[in-house]
């Protein structure tokens, strides 16, 4: 059933971010490792992703020891753990695209730096059909080394605090370098499920296409028609973001 649903999709279209003011800002503060922490409200994982993107930022990724130290330092500076016994906040890691294969949604990269809490990730089944596919960063003041800003998979539908910021990768510099050209890429020979399509695009410093006005729609149509795809196919189904 799940398999059927995830294989339904057809084509991937990637596009550079079209015209978000927020992305110019992203670029400007790129090296400062600024973080933001929603310390007063909670969202489910999907809404947290949207919240961050709508501000030109990305849900947290902790890809190595330095990034872990940086986020700990930031969270300490907020004072949150002085007044709370625990902290649980969404990061961008998830295995929605393929069970057991965790990737950072914000960068498309596989989760290679494994800093899971003991016995995690366990895809704990809350009921017969819901597992845990999205990851939080967790800290418990009485948990010792095992809950010391470590990772834990949780149900994506649950609401947690979340942490977000800008992304510092070479790829993003490239993205911004050609930011205004409105280049599109069309995955016209292979299909992915939506989550994997998002990762595919992000791992190339790009984004699944957004179509928010006629101009954007026309740009996409023009690109598709140039590719000749609709001359040889009767139907075109492709993912948008
Ligand atoms: C998490 O990473 C830190 C620093 O690299 C390490 O000291 C710690 O043992 C790791 N914890 C787990 C549970 O992997
Ligand atoms: C938690 O991690 C921080 C940063 O890596 C480290 O300084 C501290 O000793 C760790 N605490 C425990 C209880 O392992």
UniProtKB/TrEMBL annotation:
<dbReference type="InterPro" id="IPR001304">
    <property type="entry name" value="C-type_lectin-like"/>
</dbReference>
<feature type="domain" description="C-type lectin">
    <location>
        <begin position="30"/>
        <end position="165"/>
    </location>
</feature>
<dbReference type="InterPro" id="IPR016187">
    <property type="entry name" value="CTDL_fold"/>
</dbReference>
<feature type="signal peptide">
    <location>
        <begin position="1"/>
        <end position="22"/>
    </location>
</feature>
<protein>
    <recommendedName>
        <fullName>C-type lectin domain-containing protein</fullName>
    </recommendedName>
</protein>
<dbReference type="Pfam" id="PF00059">
    <property type="entry name" value="Lectin_C"/>
</dbReference>
<keyword id="KW-0732">Signal</keyword>
<dbReference type="InterPro" id="IPR051004">
    <property type="entry name" value="DC-SIGN_domain-containing"/>
</dbReference>
<dbReference type="InterPro" id="IPR016186">
    <property type="entry name" value="C-type_lectin-like/link_sf"/>
</dbReference>
């Amino acid at each position: 059933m799940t398999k059927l649903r995830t294989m339904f999709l057809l084509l991937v279209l990637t596009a550079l971010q079209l015209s978000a003011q927020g992305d110019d800002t992203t670029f400007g503060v790129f090296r400062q490792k600024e973080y933001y922490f929603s310390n007063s409200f909670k969202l489910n994982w999907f809404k947290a992703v949207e919240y961050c993107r709508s501000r030109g930022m990305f849900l947290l990724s902790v890809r190595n020891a330095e990034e872990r130290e940086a986020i700990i330092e930031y969270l300490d500076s907020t004072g949150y753990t002085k007044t709370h016994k625990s902290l649980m906040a969404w990061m961008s890691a998830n295995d929605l695209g393929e069970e057991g294969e965790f990737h950072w949604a914000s960068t498309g990269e596989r989760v290679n730096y494994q800093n899971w809490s003991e016995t995690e990730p366990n895809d704990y089944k809350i009921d017969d059909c819901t597992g845990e596919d999205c990851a939080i960063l967790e800290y418990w003041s009485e948990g010792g080394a095992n809950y010391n800003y470590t990772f834990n998979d949780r149900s994506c539908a649950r609401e947690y605090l979340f942490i977000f910021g800008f992304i510092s990768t070479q790829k993003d510099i490239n993205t911004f370098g050609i930011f205004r050209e409105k280049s599109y890429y069309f995955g016209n020979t292979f299909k992915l499920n939506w989550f994997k399509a998002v990762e595919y695009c992000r791992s190339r410093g790009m984004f699944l296409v957004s179509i928010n006005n006629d101009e954007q729609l026309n740009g996409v149509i023009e690109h598709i028609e140039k590719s000749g795809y609709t001359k040889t196919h009767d139907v075109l189904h492709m993912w948008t973001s």
